[in-house]
Specification:
Blueprint (H helix, E strand, L loop, with lengths): L2 E12 L4 E2 L2 E2 L3 E11 L4 E7 L2 H9 L1 H4 L7 H8 L20 H20 L3 H4 L7 E3 L2 E4 L20 H6 L5 H15 L4 E4 L5 H15 L5 E4 L6 H11 L5 E3 L5 H10 L4 E3 L9 H7 L4 E4 L1 H4 L2 H13 L3 E4 L6 H13 L30 E3 L12 H14 L6 H8 L11
Parallel strand pairs: 7-8, 8-9, 9-10, 10-11, 11-12, 12-13
Antiparallel strand pairs: 1-4, 2-3, 4-5, 6-14
The protein binds magnesium ion (MG).
The site of magnesium ion (MG) has 5 residues, from loops.
């Protein structure tokens, strides 16, 4: 089999005004769709980060992809390595401005695995060693937010919405409002664990939110908070004392491997990261320092699905837990995440996903459905999803109209709060 065509399409889809330490989500989230077409007429697809640098990286390697056998992924990876400039760590808020080899290869690898799976009539998880679970649990990802559902509605609300659609657009800038959001999301999707995106309100209000969530959902629902390094070391220690016994893990309260290691010495809550360890190059120092107990993998920036399986083995070797990180995404990414999680025995935490926050889709049949907080592992060939070409065209035109060329939450925040700055630490 030979790859005879390779297409890279930037898209934008409506995204609610969610808050994080970095600022505010723009009305549209950016992603990129990659397609590889074989000489026998099959097409493999993948979804990755958006932004002009992401697209530039993917287009820059076009001649290295076209003409190759999609099965020969090791050779492709070896050839691509070094062909994309390395200008930084992709797990920053400005990911779409940075160039990245693992992200570029990962996007192409997933599309090739989808193509191979379609050619063989086997699901992608079978190409990773087969499934160890038939359903993959995800967590409710809770955000402080402004009113509105994003997209063309922006900060406006649809008064006819009800259920989760109403909660999705409701303002949530207090502990009480966040608990209401959590109840609506859990009712709609059945999630069995909760993750709070922190680093937005003063720490005392966020810790109060955790306490209210614990009171509302009881002792058996795992809780996490992720302040995205907005807290100083002393702030992280102080509030850890209040959070003791309430959290499954404490995700990136403070910035950097050294600070996380210092925090780990002073508290007993397990620490997790998708900020201070985001590549294989970060692993030796992370392990040596003892910065975290849990790594949140993400095939979009760790270099694809096979690399993520390798990460899982390293985590098992060194006694580290493994969870999964998410950015705003659609169903192609969700399917890839689900196949990956199905194939990794030691991925024992519910995975993150932003998926409930998005209403648009790019796959035939519309949005994938969670059952009791989990996604059944797709059984069809490849990723088990099919690209909806009408939706692809619509979301591409939406990207052109959006005027956005990379994610910049600080810029969006300044539109509603002039002078607001992203600072580490904020508290
Ligand atoms: Mg995180």
């Amino acid at each position: 089999m030979k790859i005879v065509d390779y297409r890279v399409t930037p898209i934008a889809f409506g995204d609610p005004p969610l808050r994080a330490a970095f600022g505010l989500h723009a009305p549209y989230a950016l992603r990129t769709i990659v397609e590889v077409v074989s000489d026998d007429g099959l097409t493999g697809v993948s979804e990755t980060h958006g932004g002009s640098a992401v697209v530039a990286d993917l287009l820059a390697v076009r001649d290295l992809v076209v003409g190759r056998d999609p099965f020969q992924l090791a050779a492709l990876e070896h050839t691509l390595y070094g062909s994309v400039p390395q200008t930084g760590n992709v797990a920053t808020p400005w990911e779409g401005k940075l160039h990245s080899f693992p992200r570029t290869f990962g996007a192409i690898e997933v599309a090739c695995l989808d193509l191979i799976g379609k050619a063989l009539g086997r699901p992608v998880c079978d190409l990773l060693g087969g499934r160890v679970r038939d359903r993959v649990p995800f967590s409710a990802y809770l955000f402080y937010k402004h009113a509105g559902a994003g997209g063309e509605w922006g900060f406006e609300c649809d008064p006819a919405a009800h259920g989760w659609a109403a909660a999705r657009q409701a303002e949530a800038l207090s502990a009480e409002a966040l608990v209401e959001q959590a109840q609506a999301m859990v009712t709609a999707f059945g999630f069995k664990s909760l993750k709070l995106k922190g680093g937005v309100l003063p720490p005392e209000e966020e810790v109060r939110t955790v306490r209210l969530l614990r009171a509302a959902f009881g002792p058996d629902v795992p809780l996490r908070i992720d302040p995205n390094a907005a807290w100083s070391l002393e702030t992280s220690v102080r509030w850890a004392n209040e959070l003791e016994g309430l959290l499954e893990y404490y995700e990136d309260p403070v910035a950097g491997k050294e600070n996380m290691a210092a925090l780990a010495q002073r508290i007993s809550i397990p620490l997790a990261t998708n900020m201070c360890c985001v590549s294989f190059a970060d692993l030796p120092a992370t392990i040596r320092l003892g910065s975290v107990q849990i790594i949140l993998g993400d095939h979009h920036f760790w270099g694809g699905l096979r690399a993520s399986v390798e990460l899982a083995r390293i985590c098992r070797t060194w006694g580290l837990g493994l969870s999964m990180h998410s950015n705003s995404h659609l169903g192609i990414s969700l399917s890839a995440m689900t196949h990956l999680a199905a194939a990794i025995p030691n991925l024992t935490y519910a995975c993150d996903t932003h998926y409930p926050w998005q209403s648009e889709e790019i796959i035939v049949g519309g949005k994938l459905e969670f059952v009791d907080g989990a996604l059944p592992v797709p059984t069809g060939p490849g990723l088990g999803v099919e690209l909806d070409r009408t939706a692809l065209q619509h979301l591409h035109e939406q990207h052109l109209r959006s005027g956005l060329d990379y994610r910049d939450d600080e810029r969006e925040m300044q539109k509603i709060e002039p002078g607001w700055r992203y600072r580490v630490p904020q508290w």
